[in-house]
Amino acid sequence: MRHALLTALFAGCGVAPAEGFDAELSPVVRAPEPVQPMQPVEPLPVEPAPTGLPCDVHAALQAACAGCHVGATRIPPFSTRDDLVSLGAKVGQRLSSTTAPMPPPGAFRPLTSGERALIDAWVSSGMPAGRCGALR
Ligand code: HEC
Q: Domain segments of the chain: what residues?
């Protein structure tokens, strides 16, 4: 019945339905959505990650400390800012220690004087959080 009706309809306007045309399966054609004009995008606020380290401090610790301290079992392990906060003043003390400095003499990578000054400043300003995550 429906098919006959459609055929009649198409015949009426002089267009024959294409071979295999199936009114039930043919997709519904919609008018495209009206395009919205672009809105200015507010930048997302960048919140420091609670356990994040400032990226420059992260880079220095990653280069000169991570190799021994990340995942360590016999020496105090540290990888997050929280770990360093709980070591507290020891971090700064060992950086400038003359008897037991960190990294120890002969370690794979000494700190440059710039890196030492950077970490010292970070420790003495209370180890503020930054956007770079844990050491690996
Ligand atoms: C070559 C391996 C090695 C490297 C590199 C190294 N450490 Fe250590 N660290 C040790 C060992 C071993 C100990 C434990 C023995 C000791 O206290 O001297 C230690 C102990 C410490 C302690 C003392 C913790 C406590 O409870 O007293 C701190 C703080 C520390 N390291 C910080 C650092 C920092 C910061 C760096 C990078 C600037 C670093 N270490 C690089 C091997 C290393």
A: 55-124
